[in-house]
Amino acid sequence: MTKIFDLTGKVAIVTGANTGIGQGIALALAQAGASIAAVGRSAATETVEKARALGVNAEIVSADLSTVEPVGRIVDETVDKLGGLDILVNNAGIIRRNDSLDFSEEDWDAVIDTNLKSTFFLCQAAGRHMVKNGRGKIINIASMLSFQGGIRVPSYTASKSGVAGLTKLLACEWASKGINVNAIAPGYIATNNTTALQADETRNRQIVERIPAGRWGDPGDLGGAAVFLASSASDYVQGHVLAVDGGWLAR
Predict the structure, then answer these.
(1) What domains can you pick out in the chain, each with its CATH number?
(2) pLDDT tens-digit map of 96-133
(3) At 58, is the secondary structure helix, strand, or coil?
(4) Is 169 exposed, middle or buried (0-12, 13-18, 19+ CB in 10 A)?
């Protein structure tokens, strides 16, 4: 059974790979044998060093995904440095918090541009390469707010709802071309994006009390789901949003 999860010889782009969820997924893919193109605004030096220590090739690809300008370069640089592209993980994202009555256009655009617009155009750039090869795996990072409304994060909720819809649309278009498009919806994961929530004693307690697993998730908790969706084990899985949430949605 382990062979169908083996990623040896595969090349994966992981955006937002320098910390948190992106780093956790990149290292899980590396552990399964994939070479890693670690994309981030700041150099993902630690991620690359840890991936290389696992015995795989890994390269830094510096790019700011607040605009679509670098998407073509990310794919080209990955292919040049690592010899191909088999897996794309669209993880890069930001969040801005404010009451909807006071939410600014600047904060709306910043989140939508990074979380949704750049995700689509990187899917497009990777998809063009994958179509030529007749195969590929795309994993978008959605959210609990792909299913729920949340509070004080209107642009983030809109972007992650959009990511879920986009994942389904691309699966419908590209399944016949050998490309699997799916998403992971993390629950409450302890990262720098959730620092404010973790620091809020009341809100933190409310969150943990609702999670059946009784704890915040760790970025490493997403690794198995990512390897599954990146491997041949998921060849007949299309357009699915897989919640990794400690049971949050079940309650």
Answers:
(1) 2-243 (3.40.50.720)
(2) 999 999 999 999 999 999 999 999 999 999 999 999 99
(3) strand
(4) middle
Task: Bin 9: left if φ > 0, else alpha if -120 < ψ < 50, else beta.
Answer: left
195 Cβ partners below 8 Å, 6+ apart?
A: none
92-116 burial, b if ≥16 CB within 10 A, otherwise e? bbbbbeeeeeebeeebbebbbbbbb
Helices (H) and strands (E) in the chain, counts: 9, 7
Other beta carbons within 10 Å of 172: 12
Cβ atoms of 149 and 157 closer than 8 Å: yes
pLDDT tens track for 151-199: 999 999 999 999 999 999 999 999 999 999 999 999 999 998 788 889 9
Specify whether the CB–CB gap between 128 and 78 falls below 8 A.
no
0.85 cut: is pTM over it?
yes
Q: Is 36 left (phi over 0), alpha (psi -120 to 50) or beta?
A: beta
* 216 contacts: CB under 8 Å, gap ≥ 6: 188, 189, 190, 194, 198, 207, 208
| CB-CB contact of 219 with 21 (8 Å) | yes
Cite the active site residues.
156
**CA–CA separation, 123 vs 121, rounded Å?**
5
Burial 144-164 (b: 16+ CB within 10 A, else e): bbbbeeeeebbbbbbbbbbbb
Question: What digits encode the pLDDT tens for the residues 34-69?
Answer: 999 999 999 999 999 999 999 999 999 999 999 999
Q: How many other CB atoms are there within 10 angstroms of residue 1's CB atom?
A: 5
